[in-house]
Amino acid sequence: GAWLTVGLSVVGRVETVTASLGGVMQPMDSTTAGLRIPRLYNTYVQGPPGRQREDRIDEELERLTQWSILAPPFGVGIQANGMPDQVAADDTSAGVLWDSWHFGLCDDACTLSKHIVNTTVYQGAPGRITRGGLPLPTVVAPTTTAAPSATPPFIVITRFPANQIMITAMGRTSATAGWTEPTYDVTVDLSQSNFSATSGPFPPIGIFGRFASVSLVLSAAAYQTVARAACGITGSDLLDQAATTQSIRSSVVLSAAHATVTIPGRHTVLRRAGRGRKTGQYGYCSS
């Protein structure tokens, strides 16, 4: 509903939130590229410190648009198969994440009309959301990081009508820290999903945002398909192993005992696969 979009719009671009839930993006058709912006308007244009919104708008929108070709947006309510829309959200007191911003005079067009100049505004939304009948993901701080962030990202996972899966991590806004993109380990349970009916044993999966790792818990058939493709294995037996390919050149960890594929994030597979081709540093996604 509207409360969900508003609650998350503080955190990232509204287009990213909309796309992550299977909606249609409606980006504005102008930027301030090449213009000299007064310092007081930096937050209005670029977002909180660290966001650099204008510097990566093209990459984010371009990738989301490319994904929409693989996974067309779909409407709310009763779906084409006659089933009702299924949305799950962790709206418990512990599951809602709160962001904040201390507004200056030129930070937003509504500061005067809403009387929020020199005021800290807080806004919360569920930290984990799924659409399309998937269970809520597991989101934990990475054990391999010396000092992991105490504030997890927002995680949204959507299964589209033809079973495409979109996994999105969105950053946090803080009045003290600005915009941050904490990297966490995210586990998505796809083991009960019946993919074979329309898309084969393993559908397209789009991963957007920053992660420490993404683990996919699969059915036995889907795991065998993915593991063989990753390792180039043609035999009938598949053991636990780290898979490398010429295109990825990094380890994808396979666990046959748990039918799980783990994709490393920062500085490895996801980082290199989606590094921005224009700037080489802003944001990334892989599919």
- Rg from C-alpha positions? 20 Å
Q: What value does the average pLDDT take?
A: 76
Which assembly state applies to the chains in this document?
single chain
Structural class: alpha+beta
SSE ordering: HHHHEEEEEEEEEEHEEHEEEHE
Q: Quote the beta fraction.
A: 25-35%
Tally of helical runs: 7
Count the E strands. Answer: 16
**Runs with pLDDT <50, length 5+?**
1-12, 234-250, 275-287
- What global shape is seen? globular
The proportion of residues forming helix, as a percent range, comes to 10-25%
Strand order of the largest sheet: 1-4-6-7-11-16
Write a compact overview of the structure shown:
The protein is an alpha+beta fold and 287 residues long. Helix content is 21%, strand content 25%.
Defining traits:
single chain, 287 residues, alpha+beta, 6-stranded mixed sheet, 25% strand, globular, disordered N terminus, disordered C terminus
